[in-house]
Amino acid sequence: IDDLAEIDYSLNSLPAVFQPFIDLDLKGIVYPAGNYTGLPYVAAPFTIPDQSNSMLYLAFSEYFFQTSSFAYYTAGAFNITIAEEVKSGKKIVFSFLLQTCSYFNISTEIFGSIIPEVAKYSVTPYPVMLKLMATEIPVISLEQDSFTVEIQGSMEVFAVLPDSTTQSLFTMNVAANTSIALNIFDQKLMGSLCLNR
Hints:
Elements: E1 5-11, E2 16-17, E3 22-23, E4 26-32, H1 62-74, E5 80-82, E6 85-87, E7 90-92, E8 94-96, E9 100-102, H2 108-114, H3 116-121, E10 128-134, E11 139-142, E12 147-160, E13 166-185, E14 188-195
Antiparallel strand pairs: 1-4, 2-3, 5-10, 6-7, 8-9, 10-12, 11-12, 12-13, 13-14
């Protein structure tokens, strides 16, 4: 798939050939790249609703998403450092979290207005660096028209001092539950994200 994960797929059973269709029962397992050890999940059988108004149907089970989540968690893909780097007076935009670009320009002054202890510690405004880390394997559950993702993690906030060293300001635990619904719009697969809690 990429540098972090590989997929192993094989037929679960012989193809079933019927008059109007062919049924291919594939089992796809996602592993951390180069690490084909046992996974903490068991694949459960599932069926696709009987429909016949389209040429092709694809179905993905929770098992596929669970092994994907495990592979990327094991490879450290959910550990992200977000920082602002200053070179020759120019700010660099970082690409993070699955190639999503974001402009990051937060200082201790901004955190100091929210958390008084930070303002007491850092009178001079310094750039801030965030370290985000998943502390457990993200749990993906399939629903009727969407799927939910539960993520447990921590965020550590650092002040970046003039000599390029960092000083930890605070650490907080984060638990998020989101729903993602997929729809086809204008011949494109689109996703909508909703933060449940």
